[in-house]
Prior knowledge:
The complex is a heterodimer. Chain A is α/β, with parallel strands linked by helices.
Amino acid sequence: MSNKNAIQLDAVSKSFDGFKALSEASFTARWGEVHALLGENGAGKSSLMNIAAGLYAPETGSLFIDDNLVRLKGPLDASTQGIGMVHQHFKLVKPFSVAENILLGLRNDQALSFRQRLQQTAEEIKTTAARLGFTIDPFARVDQLSVAEQQRVEILKVLLAGARILILDEPTAVLTDAEAENLLTTVQNFAHQEGAAVILVTHKMNDVMRYADEVTVMRTGRTVASLKPQSVTVGELVKLTVGDAPTPPQVPASRAAGEVKLEVSELCSTNPNAPILRGVNLSLHAGEIYGIAGVGGNGQSELAGALMGLPEPVSGSMQLVGEGDLRDLSASRRRELGIACIPADRYSAALAAPLSISDNFAMGEIHSGRYGPFWFLRRRRIEADTAAAVSEFDVQGVRSLQQKAALLSGGNAQKLVIAREFSRQPQLVIVHSPSRGLDVRATLAVHQRLRSARDAGAAVLLISEDLDEVMALADRIGVMSAGRIIGEFAQPADRQAIGQAMVNHV
Amino acid sequence: MSLIASWIGNIPDFAVPFALAALGLIIIERSGVLALGAEGLMLVGAMSGIGASLMTDGSTVAALIMAMIAAAVVSQLFALMVLIMRINQVIAGLALVFFCQGLTGLCGTLMNWTSRPVSGLSDLSLWPLSELPVLGKLFIQDPVVYLTPIIFLLVVLVLNRTVLGLRLRAVGENPQAADAAGIPVLAYRCAAIAAGSALIGLAGAYISVLSTKMWLADMVGGRGWIAVALVIFARWSPWKALAGAVLFGCIEALIPQMAASGIRLPQYFVFMTPYAVTLGVMIWVAVASRDNSSQPGALGEPFIREERR
Lengths: 506, 309
């Protein structure tokens, strides 16, 4: 194994609309090693690698390949420098065959006929696949391949384009355990036997411990450590990843939790190809915040979707005590019962972005008749209510109530959603990643709202991938992994123990 | 018997404009751009073909080429609207039709081209096929009729058997993937619009220069819309579109034959038939085939390079 640097990013910074995604992050990977880039969601891993792959331009900092300073103008430039990135979301043309997809990105032998080039590409695919230890039919249509096979096509695509530095963004997130093991063994061989550099972006400790030669840990846009995984324990690695900053003490409920409000049992995905939920059981009491912690992609989004009434294919039951299954309730009945939902993606699921702020606010009450019967809209009352809510919930950046909701920044859009959902006394609140993309002040405001809803007797289910948030808010914590709640912790809970449970079970 | 023979002999005259226009649309739509403007571009081709023929006093071949160039140039207006300004492609297509209807009507009147006859091209007999009983008249046609299957063959070869065609289809199926592979998406779409429109313009010029041999305002008479339906009916496959064009040609060629044989049908019923058949075909396609797999994946979607948030 040579020790020469393959790729080096030096003090790279990048921000998106004022949010600093990367601050002076540095990263070095050497030839012949599998280098893991570890961090929680939003730690800046993908941003850093997108800079390495030429998709984003860094604001400050520099990039070295083979110890030479380079400036990438785009993905093509990166490709000629030998950098290939396999994205989490594949970039494949579905109705094309494997060989056609790979040929698209190649610039070989213009003199040959199309058929010859296709044949030549197919041969190269076969030999490269054999070298890496798997087989693939070059003439199979991509949309008839499994996800794992499509991922191999993506890997072949970058390798045939000449990549010697292979970046894999969360490659095991979409794979089964056996497929993941296969893939990681393959890329490990590629690094160890062929001397290439493989960068593995991940948040799975197991992948790091078993397959990486070196690991760089990122937290909140910074690279906090670079070390050999063999030299530390999983516990130490978890500590580095989630940080050991003292979390603000959790504020317990002002009164004891009441009776059971929502009873979820054996909730499973019914889609046989992607059984994401595998039997979720939980019971939620009035007057408590139940937090669901876990590494992203373990079924949180699907659970949230099912509870919020999105068409999620699930079996099992979600009993709202005294009312029956949540799935049997119409949207207006849910509103009458005081069920409030705050989805993770506020622009696509919670707000109608092209409508005005006041229209968005009035939407929640439009069925109750507060704003008039169906042939008449009481505009003035809408305006008055919205104005009151906007000032009470401190929604900033409102120039006029007629302004489009799309013009609000992420945090203020979230506050508008919360203002609408909390404008009546909610009885059951389902929240998914409420503070994603929010600044500290807005986050504190959102947390305060959730606590006061709880103290007013509502049952709150908080699903969040941010462990700090769950620790700060929840009265009880369930850890979600592989589509199940695998453990419950009562406050005061041990942060390290929860962190261990989150990763060990994967 | 002679009625059937002359009916068969008339079919290519009606089928060729449908076929060429549908082929042009397929080229554009395979690149992911929804093109509804065929009617307008056919009018541009029809008028400029006659114009060129009258102005240059003769060369029909030059007139057809002028028609193709004119349609390609006007189509760049559409390209500007949908590719650069990212205006809704349906609205841009409709706007193009209405604009071209007005423009060709105005130009035809101003230049005094209306109802002035042109010479066209003389028919070529393919001996000995032209001596066949009943089918013989199918082989006494103008050269563009014989050229049409050759154009189809060329387009099919380019689409399916070249890297150029592979890239064009990739742009229409998944522009993000094409972009990641280093293909200039907008340039490919722009070129597809120009090339396809040239064929649509040729279809229009065929009607005016070779079929009717004169220009009349709005003379395309809805054939552009039928071509749009034909493309959907053919599931974006050139050969199926050619078959569909022949089918429509058969129906249209029947109308004058029925009049000649003395069958009295209400005039407007006769004019309605192609559209009724179009409607019927569309409903049949919708009921019969549930899969949308042959439709270009990114049809009608403007391309914006992925930007964060």
